[in-house]
Amino acid sequence: MNQDMLAKVRTGRGFVAALDQSGGSTPTALERYGIQRSAYIDEAAMFDLVHAMRTRIMTSAAFTGDRILAAILFEKTMERQVDGLGAAEYLWTRKHVVPFLKVDQGLAQEAHGVKTMKPMPGLDALLERARQHGVFGTKMRSVVLTADPAGVDAVVAQQFQIARRILAAGLVPIVEPEVDIHSADKADAESLLQTVLLHHLDTLEDGQDVLLKLTLPEQDGAHQVLLDHPRVLRVAALSGGYTREEADSRLARNPGVIASFSRALTEGLAAGMSDEEFDATLDASIASIYAASTT
Known about the structure:
The protein has about 300 residues and is an alpha/beta fold. The chain has helices at about 5-10, 25-30, 45-60, 75-80, 85-95, 125-130, 150-170, 185-200, 225, 245-250, 265, 275-295; strands at about 15-20, 70-75, 80, 85, 100, 115, 135-145, 170-180, 210-215, 230-240, 260. Helix 2 packs across helix 3 and helix 10 (about 245-250) packs parallel to helix 12.
């Protein structure tokens, strides 16, 4: 494990940039960027366009390790190049941003008020490729829709089962059981989730440290008990569909929690912008998210 990366993740000031939209979410991300579905004829062309968007973000003068601790990449992004280097290698060697990789293969059908992750038959091979690219850790997402104990138990058990495999491969997992911001019982779901997370965290041994990526809570400060757990490196918050203004406001009311924003990070960016407009817009976005993450 890269100790410089570990130190930055553990103690650095800043936030995590989520650049990991996958096949299902990419068309919407491109539309928000000003590229309509009629602009590409197939998936290959779509991924070329989204890689160009991500490359523009990563190579921007505004995107540096001074304010960004880490970035989460999609598998296809990791396998491509940015300015002549592999994307993960570029992030660390040129920007001093710690690279993470999204490893889940999407969500299963809803059951017991949750969506667990689909099977990952190629996980071991993917983790080995990630190590070869210098990736530090991984991210995997499940979704909690209601405060159903059986469902929440299933989500967290699956997350930690896979997290142990990732730890055994020498990588650090981001455990992401997202509570849907539109859940009718969001606060109850968050309370239940916290209880189950603490139970599983207590089963980890020294050195089996993880990051948590959670929804911004209804009760300010609710994540503090997780922040204080010895097996938790950091607690990051996803924007979850909130606007950047709302996400920043909620984040600032939860000291110690840092951002791991995707939609909120790229809000306002457009393909047709000049480089100066693009960099200025991204700089303002990064500044506001950094400020909320270091409150």
